[in-house]
Amino acid sequence: MNNETLWKRREAAIPRGLGMMHPVFATRASNAEIWDADGRRYIDFAAGIAVTNTGHNHPAIKAAVAAQLDNFSHVCAQVTPYEPYVALAEKLNALAPGETPKKTIFLTTGAEAVENAIKIARAATGRPGVIAFSGGFHGRTMMGMALTGKVVPYKTGFGPFPSDIYHVPFPAPYLGISEAASLDAIARLFKSDIEASRVAAIIIEPVQGEGGFYAASPAFMQALRSLCDTHGILLIADEIQTGFARTGAMFAVEHAGIEPDLMTVAKAMAGGFPISGVIGKAAIMDAAGPGGLGGTYGGSPLGCAAGLAVLETIERESLCQRAIEIGDRIVRHCEALRQSDRGIGEVRTLGAMTAVELVVDGDADAPDVARTAALVAEARKRGLLLLSCGVRGNVIRFLAPLTIPMEQLDEGLDVFSAALKATAG
Ligand SMILES: Cc1ncc(COP(=O)(O)O)c(C=O)c1O
User: Fold this and answer.
1) In the listed set 316, 332, 354, which residue is the last one of a domain according to the structure?
2) Measured from the CB, is residue 114 less than 6 Å from ligand 1?
3) Do 301 and 213 belong together in one domain?
4) Which of 234, 269, 276, 308 pairs with 205 at a CA distance of 20 to 30 A?
5) Residues 346, 326 share a domain
6) What's the whole-number mean pLDDT along residues 191-202?
7) What is the number of structural domains in the chain?
8) For residue range 155-189, what is the model confidence (pLDDT) as tens digits?
9) 271 in contact with ligand 1, CB cutoff 6 A
10) Could you write out the three-class secondary structure of the chain?
11) Is the CB of 33 within 6 Å of ligand 1?
């Protein structure tokens, strides 16, 4: 079994619609390292797309899941409830920003959390409309796609989508979109497309993930909060990529000091065990009638046990603080590279949600998509797994586990520098 033979089997057995960033097959992983089927070792700056913030195979998480596995792996929370589900909900309710009492429901994937947040928002307000942002990503289900603000590849050929979904520009100064322009677009939407009184919710990623790691400023998040309050609209923070210490706080909205009505969480909440959730103000969460929410695997016992261990690990290992240290270190490294490489247009971060935007000769309007792809391939050849992203496909995002030893972070950054040099025009 090696990468080449596995690749042939994959091509024959799996549809091409399932994208793939690195044609190397993982066989083993530990903290921030992955080994492939050819026995090669990689430093992992992908974390399974922002999932293993606590590293691969963290001993505390493994032990918690093993202990739960000894008890049972599935009974279905809608058939016979179990304590880890309640305990994890209690913990998240206490951690969620704001003083309003909270409730939490667990699902399985991020997209499913988004689906449920919209269901709850519509049930609570009796309104149909939802406003999302261009460049945003909210998942691959029908509602997830409808809310996602990027057509290729996520929406191509898959419509029609649910109705009453509207997009406005996400504020991204580097792309020439100001906060005022974004807020203006919402005001115009209320005049031209849907009256505010028919809008159930505005959903926003506090830092766009797939869209390119553009962060909404605290002032913008506060403006959205007051706009929502004025019109009786619910504010949904999609924290699926930003959550669980990644941005230097448990949740990214904390940087803005606001309380969202609903939050969607998934990915890093259980270190790789599939579980997601909607956390929200209790009265809103209770709007849906009995039986209206749920799913066979929602809040799986293994996911709940892992989630509880993840929260303890974040606390015990001070991972919010560590995210800030990691982000600072990557920014310093990349800013130094930017001095001598005009291909790096911008370096940006919130905690350890760090990205560099690659452009041609310092021109923000000339995204360097080819170099971005070449850089990802070159880094892999040299033993570093990177991820690209961005509405224009020209952003490298750094998502190392927050538990990565600093010397491995530096080793990875040195590989990044070498690969960057090798791809300079
Ligand atoms: C912000 C955001 N929302 C939703 C999703 C969808 O999550 P999942 O892939 O678990 O369905 C993602 C996944 O990347 C995401 O980043």
Assistant:
1) 316
2) yes
3) yes
4) 308
5) yes
6) 98
7) 2
8) 999 999 999 999 999 999 999 999 999 999 999 99
9) no
10) CCHHHHHHHHHHHCCCCCCCCCCCCEEEEEECEEEECCCCEEEECCHHHHCCCCCECCHHHHHHHHHHHHHCCCCCCCCCCCHHHHHHHHHHHHHCCCCCCEEEEEECCHHHHHHHHHHHHHHHHCCCEEEEECCCCCCCCHHHHHHCCCCCCCCCCCCCCCCCEEEECCCEHHHCECHHHHHHHHHHHHHHCCCHHHEEEEEECCECCCCCCCECCHHHHHHHHHHHHHHCCEEEEECCCCCCCCCCCCCHHHHHCCCCCEEEECHHHHCCCCCEEEEEEHHHHCCCCCCCCCCCCCCCHHHHHHHHHHHHHHHHCCHHHHHHHHHHHHHHHHHHHHHHCCCEEEEEEECCEEEEEEEECCEEEEECHHHHHHHHHHHHHCCEECEEECCCCCEEEECCCCCCCHHHHHHHHHHHHHHHHHCCC
11) no
pLDDT tens per residue, range 210-267: 999 999 999 999 999 999 999 999 999 999 999 999 999 999 999 999 999 999 999 9
| pLDDT mean across residues, the chain | 98
Do 207 and 284 lie in one domain? The reply is yes
Cα-to-centroid distance, 94 and ligand 1 (Å): 23
Predicted confidence at residue 425, as pLDDT, reads 79
State in Å: Cα 151 to ligand 1 middle: 16
Residue that finishes a domain, picked among 284, 316, 348: 316
Which CATH number does the domain housing residue 351 bear? 3.90.1150.10
Residues 218, 260, single domain; the answer is: yes
Give 290-321 pLDDT, tens digit per residue. Answer: 999 999 999 999 999 999 999 999 999 999 99
Q: How far is the CA of 13 from the centre of ligand 1 (A)?
A: 25
The whole domain housing 331 covers 3-54+318-422
Whichever domain contains 279, its CATH number is 3.40.640.10
Identify whether residues 77 and 29 lie together within a single domain.
no
Whether residues 111 and 259 fall in one domain: yes
CB-ligand 1 contact for 269 (6 Å cutoff)? no
Q: Could you tell me if 94 and 119 lie in one domain?
A: yes
Q: What is the pLDDT of residue 11?
A: 96
| Ligand 1 and 109: CB distance under 6 A | yes
Is 241 a pocket residue for ligand 1 (Cβ < 6 Å)? yes
* Residue of 155, 241, 251, 273 to test ligand 1 pocket, by largest number of atoms within 8 Å of CB: 241
Find the mean pLDDT for residues 3-24.
Answer: 96
Q: Is the pLDDT of residue 354 over 90?
A: yes
Average pLDDT over residues 55-67: 98
* 330 and 256 within one domain: no
**Ligand 1 within 6 A of 110 CB?**
yes
